[in-house]
Design a protein that fits this description.
heterodimer, A: alpha/beta, TIM Barrel, eight-stranded parallel beta barrel, 22% strand, B: alpha/beta, eight-stranded parallel β-barrel, 10 helices, 32% helix
């Protein structure tokens, strides 16, 4: 089945919201730093995970477990323990980034389905096929750095199903190859499962405006009429060559509704919605729009046009109220 | 413990690159990494030029490693990678897993670069099984984590640590240098040439923070482990990587050689030729921009 809809589940309520609104599968993490959204109050313990699985399976949907941070030597057993639990719980797949952990999973749980996480930074079919040959991965999530023709080239040269990010937060850097957060705060997605962690954020009202800081580093300063967003490091305003601007990326979200016919045509297996840290209401709304859009494009790809109501709804939910096609659309680069 | 000259991460004119390596032939380094590892649009030196340089260094008695591109996007990137692997005369540094696949299929030993994300001994063991003989930990790894990893490292694996230079922190499809000039990446007019040590990015209050180097983002702070040689020796580190800068690189090498020889004043010698403030937070398990003698505010 092409173009499955994969939705974020940061909690049981979100999981149910995603399933009820038409997600084909949800992805979740355990409540520790074994996944890339290790935020306080988020994620699942074993009992909640079991309940989520029951809820999804009763309705013919699937649950994927993100174990996509890089295991550390002194806490290796936390990651292998999570693999064991995933197998015991009957997860439909685990999403991994680390080669050592994949080897463990294949050896201990040969029936467990493996997906390559976006954090694995595989941007070519040679890399994707490496993980296929050595660990039997069934699906790979590509970093948000390739144009659609480049994605198509990957699809044409591998048996691995390809999953793309369709909507939500936009990493401008290759996922898994960005250490900006740890350079500033000591914690990176790779090691701690967080980017620009909330505990390092500081807001201060100053005569010059509202300032956001990350571990003391000034990320932005907002004028009276400006809306302040979450201070993600790469979306701050900085000075380069005497000019102050969004030197890395604007505070914008990815929205690829317009590209759905193209994605269907080139054989994308699944579309992933970012946002395990978002509210259940957000998950419900986004899932609903994307379900309708995917159903519509499958029915009539040639005549597909995103409905204005969908775009309006998604724009309301977007970071900074603006969206971009990201790297899929070459001029963005 | 010996010294490696890391790959040139910036884009310089052909004359400047050749002059840099001409001088480098006289430096006391054991190993030289050559080739373009950052951006496929940088072409003032083509592969045959790099291979010619490699031959010259080999003749001068240096070990040569060809460093491969970190972010592979297109078929032509893969083609280049295949040419590098197929040449076969020199060892190759794999900086992503597509290169690992090609090198292991070719059955040749290789260097596992710091962007392969080797955070634990199991992953290092996977790479050892595929032919890696030398590896670099991620630049964010602390000495405590490295020690824990090395306790169970595969036998015979040589460890090289990024020990000097602006830290390569991130890679993107977008070119931030071109963006600064409001140019599309496909028509970047090679503005990186105007910034031989990258383009400085500061906060709105003027604090040096990052360095833009095309599609790569580096730290503004200059990572230096010159004060950590006893700890590095204790860990059994084989080599220290020194990352090229446009000026005084020979003096950087001299400072590290002086430190290795136990001379006093080596760190001060180095401080005089560093293009930015020293940082070593990563090594101590803290924010990368911190320095061990001063806690960041």
């Amino acid at each position: 089945m092409p173009l499955e809809l994969i939705c974020p589940a940061g909690s049981l309520v979100s999981l149910k919201a995603a399933i009820d609104n038409g997600a084909d599968a949800v992805y979740m993490g355990f409540r520790d730093n074994t996944n890339a959204r290790a935020f306080p109050g988020l994620n699942f313990d074993e009992a909640q995970a079991a309940e989520g699985l029951r809820y999804a399976h009763d309705r013919g949907r699937r649950v994927l477990l993100a174990l996509n941070t890089y295991p550390q030597p002194d806490t290796w057993s936390r990651w292998t323990g999570a693999i064991d639990r995933a197998a015991k719980l009957g997860m439909d797949a685990v999403i991994l980034a680390d080669a050592g952990l994949m080897r463990y999973a294949v050896k201990q749980h040969p029936a467990l389905r493996l997906h390559l996480s976006v954090q694995g930074s595989a941007t070519s079919y040679e890399a994707v096929n490496f993980y296929r040959e050595h660990f039997g991965i069934q699906r790979a999530v590509l970093p948000r750095v390739l144009s659609l023709p480049q994605v198509e080239n990957v699809v044409q040269h591998t048996d691995v199903e390809i999953e793309l990010f369709g909507f939500g937060g936009l990493c401008v850097m290759v996922e898994g190859r960005c250490l900006l957060s740890s350079y500033c705060t000591g914690e990176s997605p790779n090691t701690a499962g967080v980017c620009s962690p909330p505990k390092a954020v500081q807001w201060t009202d100053t005569p010059a405006g509202l300032e956001s800081r990350l571990n003391g580093v000034l990320l932005d300063r907002y004028g009276k009429d400006e809306k302040a967003g979450y201070p993600t490091l790469c979306k701050g305003r900085f000075a380069v060559g005497g000019e102050t601007y969004y030197a890395i990326e604007e505070p914008t979200s990815l929205n690829t509704l317009d590209l759905l016919p193209e994605m269907l045509k080139i054989g994308i297996a699944a579309i992933k919605i970012e946002g395990r840290q978002r509210s259940p209401a957000y998950v419900a709304q986004v899932t609903k729009v994307w379900r309708a859009a995917i159903d519509s494009v499958k029915k009539n790809a040639a005549g597909f046009k995103p409905e204005p109501a969908w775009q309006a709804e998604l724009n309301k939910l977007s970071e900074g109220q603006s969206h971009t096609l990201g790297a899929y659309h070459r001029p963005w680069k | 413990m010996n010294l490696s000259l890391g790959p040139l991460l910036y884009y310089w004119s052909r004359d400047d690159v050749l002059a840099f390596y001409e001088e480098a032939k006289t430096w006391d380094v054991t190993r030289v990494y050559l080739g373009e590892s950052v951006c496929s649009r940088r072409h003032l030196l083509r592969l045959p030029d790099w291979l010619a340089l490699a031959e010259q260094f080999a003749a001068a008695g240096k070990e040569v490693v060809l460093s491969s591109q970190t972010l592979i996007e297109s078929e032509s990137d893969l083609k280049m990678l295949r040419r590098i692997v197929a040449d076969g005369r020199f060892r190759v540094e794999a900086n992503e897993w597509g290169a690992v696949r090609m090198l292991s299929e070719a059955g040749v030993p290789f260097v596992a670069g710091h962007t392969l994300n080797i955070y634990n001994p199991e992953t290092l063991d996977v790479l050892a099984g595929l032919g890696a003989q030398r590896w670099l930990p991620p630049v964010e790894m602390s000495h405590v984590t490295l020690a824990a990893l090395l306790e169970r490292a595969p036998a015979g694996m040589e460890t090289e640590v990024f020990a000097y230079g602006r830290l390569p922190l991130a890679y993107s499809a977008r070119c931030f240098t071109a963006r600064h000039y409001n140019l599309p990446k496909d028509d970047c007019q090679f503005r990186c040439l105007d910034h031989p040590d990258g383009l400085a990015l500061t906060t709105r209050e003027g604090e040096a923070f990052l360095t833009l180097n095309g599609i790569q983002t580096q730290s503004a702070g200059v990572y230096s482990l010159i004060g950590e040689l006893p700890a590095l020796r204790k860990l059994g580190i084989a080599s220290l990587r020194l990352s090229p800068q446009s000026r005084h690189m020979g003096r950087v090498v001299e400072a590290f050689q002086a430190a290795l020889a136990g001379e006093t004043g080596a760190a001060e010698k180095l401080a005089r030729v560093m293009p930015g403030p020293a940082v070593d937070g990563y090594w101590h398990g803290r924010a990368g921009l911190e320095h061990s003698t001063e806690k960041h505010a």
